């Protein structure tokens, strides 16, 4: 047994004797670790015990092991790491600036299982052969997704961190993801109550865009967010967030996204934000938006027009009585804008296109107008006249016309 393992064992014994909770009593556990490391260092100089090495590093490693997530904790603490994924015990990857790297971290199968169990402890969610998938939130807000055999050959773990590099549309402009003209247009559109669909591939920055758009909501508005797992961090004072719940061992108690959308409407919302629309909950969202409640959501899609097609197709999953003839005009009357986000091969994230959604449907196609598109690396106005966005106030429209944001 090496020095760190000995100290860790001693610390765990003292934690059990004192009845401490490492997650809740971090200051007490930290003091305990520092004392144990100091005492061991003195003993090792006088006996044949293995030497501990640098004290500060030993304290950090023992603290990570007993009160954090062990070998993964340095990656979680590293602000440059956006995502961590594990393809078995010996393959731990991270993403930095949108690009993947293989790390030097190695774990045994037992150690990986122990860390996953520790991560799930605070969430109350379970993982077993009858439920081989799990989504959960870590204490720092990171999103955990785990799949176990026999669905996979080896344990597969994904941890998506939420690093707040952008909290407003101005931040996106400063990073080059958005032009100042487009930012001004989106800010005015959201403030005036336009319904916005944010689209893009995985890791394209959809959630970040939704957070930044929400910063343009009026400070007195009450915002309801519904998600599978908490991800949104709306920078307003009157916000209530809800997340889905898995069924229990008796296969009861599940709360799907559709239920949350319906419950949110009973809570006096001024705005409704849906983290991601994937299935039949799109029908409930459209009904809510059609009743006059402003809202925003995200969807996976390859382009802005594909996103519009998808949001008009997903409601068909809600039941055989729902037809495309009903959905298309509903989508056209509900949605105002589609903001499409992209992550390129270099890991850069930016807005590729902003689409205005018209209220007319011709030959099964919703009328649209491209307001902004990326040309030569810049997001520029298309110059198209904004003829069908009645929610945009006259003052905002005139200001945007002067700035050249719209035709």
TrEMBL record:
Matching InterPro entries: P-loop_NTPase, T2SS/T4SS_dom, T4SS_GSP_E_ATPase
Domain of life (superkingdom): Bacteria
Molecular function GO labels: ATP hydrolysis activity
CDD domains: VirB11-like_ATPase (cd01130)
Residue ranges occupied by any Bacterial type II secretion system protein E domain in the UniProt entry: 69-343
Family according to the record: Belongs to the GSP E family.
UniProt-recorded name of the protein: Pilus assembly protein CpaF
Organism from which the protein derives: Nesterenkonia cremea
